Task: inverse folding
């Protein structure tokens, strides 16, 4: 007879770490850095704090030359002391399960890095944190109990805070490699982050690649503007995105409300009149207690909501980069001769609002300023050459390019850069695409590529086509000028 | 202050269903079919039963024309009645968390389909099952309680068995679409399954695409051989794949054993002498109770195992297709003029044994016999044209082709089909690649593409290069003959 068993989410993700991006030693180094770094940006920028983040990769164990310690410090909002063990010791535990644009969304990232380090070095994770209103700094040394998906606190401490410092320092040791590949992955990630986050101060300390006697290398991305994007605001769900399971979950959170009150308080874009319209269609008493609705009534309510028209979801839960910042970033880093950008109007898919933004850069010193990964992707192409810089919720996406819906548009046969947009076979163009949403439909929990959701696909296509048209206008003018000068 | 919460695995996968392949209505139809179908093949072939599987897609609700009912019946080993609610109502619950080649591996597939159907139709899942030695057939109607990740049994029944029938019937209603796209996805999947499983009887009943008056269409893939592959055997873990977390989990399963006994009984390729060698290196008393090892001793044991040489992992846990079956399948279905196949020797990665197999087909009626998805992928290419048929643990992989390590090899610049292997730009070749392992390193839980694990990459490259060489030999002979005839 077969034997069956239940697995905890911690054991599941530990055993199947490739689905979270931990597919090799260099990818594990990269993924660990980005999970902590994205947590730090979520703890600063999203709360209106100008980010200052220090990332340090060092070798601290002479007995184990393949062990690397990754330390990330930020000036963010910190984590309350009683929450820290669960935030870092429990898989699927998060403050980001909300309708608000954040980089994090799964409640898994930091835990994946901790599980990985724990598995191959046995060394515990260390964290210091202090929230903005706290008078103390808290310290924990912890590991994850895999079978129970629980934290195991090995040590804790606290000290009175001697300054106004607030933020978090995380420290993890893992078995990895410091190769050209790892260096390229991480430096490209930081460089592309800096393109769209000129308000962030980023300090990167890494093992030296140079001569002996100098064991650390420092790279700094200086803040060049104090202007932060408007932080996103948490919103209520939109009725378009509702399904039966979601309705049941929401009802369990407001059991004593009347059905009418439940609709108005639980959803955005539902006022008195809209609620009455829905309830009339569903043939349900407005005053009936929502937790006493029968299954049949729930299905009628669900159908009625599906058949009702609403104003589109609010975009206040989103925080786009903005055309200005995209143009500045591309100009600064790529030193191209022509740069333009577009931020499309908000749309939505399945109740989740999203905004597509794009940038285009051409000519000038573009080719020599492209990073290693962009240069590599160009080598595989036949001209004209298109270097694609993908972003989702302000995270640079470096891998699985050809599985991304964005790539499928920029590379499709319909997007004829040569014939329609008048590029020469030797031309090089950089295209930046950013998808911002309360839920980015990634293809995997490693957040490397976006699934082909039709509404998003259409918006990306429209954005890139618009910029390609503007480039064509520029090239046509430029060529006319050159021909005129040659006469 | 931020609010934090824990999410159950059921709610997590329900909210993030795109990471499991549920990215659109047609993909949801496809994924539902394949999750049930793969369960049925695991319940038959893996146990030495000649599979007979009936898949039926029908519209059973005149009030809801977008609701489709998917029914899959198999003659497999069935599920014990007390286990059924958990097997289908609890995410991360499985009989396949073992070292044995099966299609299933996550304990998630059937539950994803059930969560999807439940979410948009509210209709419960139905199952009938009877194990081979049981005298009764059991019936359950159930749903998944998302917040607790538990089954909710709405109805159950049992009847005395009137025949020798054994197996399982699953029935799920979901909101989907029956479009050309859905039809192509499912028919290509079944066709490609039939290529490598000529021992399976597959009956597919679908909504008619033809004239009114005929509401169902039947497609049959007849069994053409009674010869089954040798079923895989469950094996113990191999020491190469061990890590600290795994050691701790294994020790908790044999707490009272001596450390020496633990090594011999827990691992394959570890006998008396090997165990003593490891314990000497780790400086641990062979007789010491394994659950009393300190953390320091555990780390020494782990390091000692890492530094010891062992015979490669046993391949008895694997069940390759075999060169004969691959050639027969390609010949039958593609009617090519030239067909060859290779089954490489077993290798391993991270303690998991794997076998790469490949097949190649050229000329004859190949082009007209390729399925829709293969034809589509060819349209995007410049000649010579390579139609890639990917398989992992006998599952056809249809999507995310360009993210797959197999594609990266067959399409890399180093694989010059034109110059090295002498194909003409108008030539069409089909390449079949199968990766069989106790753990296929998929990139996502939707099982569509394989991660670039170096050991696997090397084996796929060697297999395809060998077959390309054999094709070149064939083409060289053929052209010599043609030139001789023309004289
Ligand atoms: N540097 C930090 N500053 C403040 N809070 C943090 C920091 N790092 C982690 N957290 C908190 O810990 C929680 C868990 O982090 P984790 O990375 O595991 O998941 P997540 O960021 O919510 O989602 P994802 O898996 O997508 O990254 C976060 O939701 C956040 O509340
Ligand atoms: N048709 C079937 N016949 C016999 N057992 C089945 C059948 N379908 C499912 N099961 C049992 O139910 C369990 C759960 O199935 P499920 O598809 O959810 O997960 P899995 O097959 O183990 O892994 P995966 O998520 O990779 O598919 C299986 O492990 C198997 O034991
Ligand atoms: Mg995170
Ligand atoms: Mg399964």
Result:
């Amino acid at each position: 007879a077969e034997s069956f068993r239940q697995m905890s989410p911690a054991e599941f993700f530990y055993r199947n770490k490739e689905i979270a991006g931990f597919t090799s030693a260099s990818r594990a180094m990269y993924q660990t850095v980005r999970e902590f770094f994205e947590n730090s940006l979520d703890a600063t920028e999203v709360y209106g704090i100008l980010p200052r983040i220090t990332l340090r990769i060092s070798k601290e164990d002479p007995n184990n030359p393949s062990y690397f310690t990754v330390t990330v410090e930020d000036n963010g909002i910190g984590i309350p002391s009683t929450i820290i063990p669960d935030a870092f010791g429990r898989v699927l535990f998060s403050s980001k399960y909300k309708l608000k644009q954040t980089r994090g969304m799964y409640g898994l990232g930091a835990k994946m890095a901790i599980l990985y380090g724990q598995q191959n070095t046995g060394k515990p994770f260390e964290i210091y944190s202090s929230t903005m209103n706290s008078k103390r700094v808290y310290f924990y040394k912890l590991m994850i109990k895999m079978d129970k998906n629980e934290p195991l606190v090995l040590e804790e401490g606290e000290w009175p805070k001697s300054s106004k410092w607030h933020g978090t320092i995380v420290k993890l040791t893992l078995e990895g490699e410091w190769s050209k590949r790892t260096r390229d992955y991480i430096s490209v990630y930081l460089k592309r982050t800096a393109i769209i986050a000129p308000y962030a101060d980023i300090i990167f300390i890494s093992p030296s690649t140079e001569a002996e006697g100098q064991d650390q290398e420092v790279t700094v991305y200086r803040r060049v503007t104090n202007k932060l994007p408007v932080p996103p605001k948490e919103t209520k769900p939109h009725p378009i995105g509702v399904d039966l399971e979601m309705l049941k979950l929401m009802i369990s959170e407001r059991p004593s409300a009347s059905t009418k009150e439940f609709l108005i308080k639980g959803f955005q874009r539902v006022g008195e009149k809209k609620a009455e319209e829905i309830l009339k269609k569903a043939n349900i008493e407005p005053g009936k207690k929502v937790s006493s609705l029968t299954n049949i009534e729930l299905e009628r309510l669900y159908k009625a909501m599906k058949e009702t028209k609403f104003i589109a979801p609010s975009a206040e839960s989103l925080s786009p980069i903005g055309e200005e910042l995209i143009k500045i970033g591309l100009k600064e880093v790529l030193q191209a001769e022509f740069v333009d950008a577009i931020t499309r109007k908000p749309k939505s898919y399945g109740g989740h609002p999203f905004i597509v933004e794009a940038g285009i850069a051409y000519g000038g010193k573009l080719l020599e300023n492209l990073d290693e990964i962009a240069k590599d992707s160009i080598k595989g192409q036949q001209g004209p050459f298109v270097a694609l810089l993908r972003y989702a919720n302000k995270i640079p996406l470096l891998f699985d390019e050809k599985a991304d819906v964005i790539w499928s548009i920029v590379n499709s046969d319909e997007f004829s850069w040569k014939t329609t947009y008048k590029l020469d076979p030797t031309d090089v163009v950089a295209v930046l695409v950013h998808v911002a949403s309360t839920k980015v439909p990634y293809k995997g929990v490693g957040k490397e590529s976006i699934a082909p959701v039709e509404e998003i696909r259409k918006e990306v296509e429209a954005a890139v086509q618009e910029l390609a048209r503007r480039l064509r206008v520029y090239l046509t003018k430029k060529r006319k000028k050159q021909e005129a000068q040659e006469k």
The mean pLDDT of chain B is 94. The pocket of magnesium ion (ligand 3) is lined by residues A 35, 38-39, 104, 109-110 (CB under 6 Å).
